[in-house]
Design brief:
17% of the residues lie in helices and 45% in strands. The protein is α/β, with parallel strands linked by helices.
Amino acid sequence: MITLTENAAKHVQSYIAKRGKGVGLRVGVRTSGCSGMAYKLEFADALNPGDLEFESRGVKLIVDPKSLPYLQGTELDYSREGLNEGFKFRNPNVKDECGCGESFNV
């Protein structure tokens, strides 16, 4: 299961409302970066065959089956720190991250 903090849920709901369409947030991983894997996020307008769905704080989270083992138990937060803002992944499966924080391995 993947969960959202209250701040992350509010951000996603607000963004989907501004877009005027969307069924939820698609969360996944891809092979990339110096540590091997990187997160990918996008707002989903439809479900793909085989997609897994979770709901957290009223937001639908959509995950492809190949990404789920890497994301199981992850909490997604959204924060603003000075001029920087964005999603932060709290993933209990991560063993190591690269120095820039863009990729990880399990």
